[in-house]
Amino acid sequence: MEKSRVLVVGGTGYIGRRLVQASLAQGHPTFVLMRPEIGLDIDKLQMLLSFKAQGACLLEASLDDHASLVAAVKQVDVVISAMSGAHIRSHNLKLQHKLVEAIKEAGNVKRFIHSEFGMDPSKMDHALEPGRVTFDEKMELRRAIEEANIPHTYISANCFAGYSCPNLCQLRTLLPPKEKVHVYGDGNVKVVFVDEDDVATYTIKSIDDPRTLNKTIYLRPRDNILTQNEVIVKWEMLSGKVLEKIHIPADDFLASMKDTDFPHQVAVGHYYHIFYEGCLTNFDIGEDGAEATLLYPEVEYTRVDEYIKQYL
Ligand SMILES: NC(=O)c1ccc[n+]([C@@H]2O[C@H](COP(=O)([O-])OP(=O)(O)OC[C@H]3O[C@@H](n4cnc5c(N)ncnc54)[C@H](OP(=O)(O)O)[C@@H]3O)[C@@H](O)[C@H]2O)c1
What does the pLDDT look like over 250-302, one tens digit per residue? Predict the structure, then answer.
């Protein structure tokens, strides 16, 4: 079967750059949106040029210029958006409505993957303020996509390993703790950690797959479904050092949201749902979903031990 032509929007971002690489690696004709608004951002430009050197085609278009966006979308079969949506970096999910409008007008797109790549927003009706904005906006996008009858796949990628594994799930740092570690409650809630390159690999695998059409694909690599305690033990075994554990009751953790900056409030809310409530693993995948490692058993995913070894 001929490989679909893929356009990545947000291709220089944290997950976007991996989607571009995975699309190229899996042999898709790969296009990357090059926005004139990048201005003097030479790092972005050089990354775009490196994609071009690897065989990608750069398409100049702006989300603020509908005609340019329609023209870009018309050149491909699949559009994947990796628009920013993490407040600790930047958050512009709503801009994707412009992409939906362009896809609607172009009328040729066989699959659209909008920027989700996290918890399943359809399971987060009850989410806490202010972090619920992430889920509300992702759901608004879903409604727009479905109302426009755009063929789609939703990717529920769970926790990007880089944000939550080497730091043993601590907030405000990406590095492993040296002496003490904060443990959420009893630390026994099951969480799912996924290597970011694997997120991209599974996403690209799904785009030409009829089994994933109009479904949610959950990334639940079995060996990476771990509790916080299990992640800590893995690090202790690797580093040869036992850390002091400080258990934080749920109420104290939630209270830490008060009088702090907005991105941290969002992060505390999300972590509460993940590490206390178990929102990544407290439901079974239904008829409207499928699990990525079962669909694509040939992918050798990265285990948490292997991932955190880099930080020794
Ligand atoms: N599961 C997890 O643990 C986890 C963690 C973090 C993020 N996420 C999710 O992953 C997705 C992507 O997040 P990310 O951290 O990879 O994003 P990011 O690197 O912060 O940004 C991605 C891209 O968004 C585009 N962008 C940002 N501001 C823009 C603007 N004003 N106008 C037009 N384009 C703009 C840029 O595209 P260009 O390349 O065109 O400049 C940027 O490279 C989000 O849905 C987020 O919620 C999940």
Answer: 999 999 999 999 999 999 999 999 999 999 999 999 999 999 999 999 999 99
Check pocket membership of 59 for ligand 1, CB cut-off 6 A: no
Q: Measured in angstroms, how far is the CA atom of residue 160 from the centroid of ligand 1?
A: 13
* pTM above threshold 0.90: yes
> Using one digit for the tens of pLDDT, what is the confidence trace for 188-239?
999 999 999 999 999 999 999 999 999 999 999 999 999 999 999 999 999 9
Task: Output the CA–CA distances (angstroms, integers) from residue 166 to 101, 109, 228, 232, 303, in the order listed.
Answer: 40, 38, 11, 9, 12
The residue whose CA has the least distance to atom 13 of ligand 1 is 84
Ligand 1, closest atom to CA 160?
Answer: 3
- The pick from 7, 15, 165 for probing ligand 1's pocket by mutation, whose C-beta has the most ligand atoms within 8 angstroms, reads 15
12: Cβ below 6 Å to ligand 1? yes
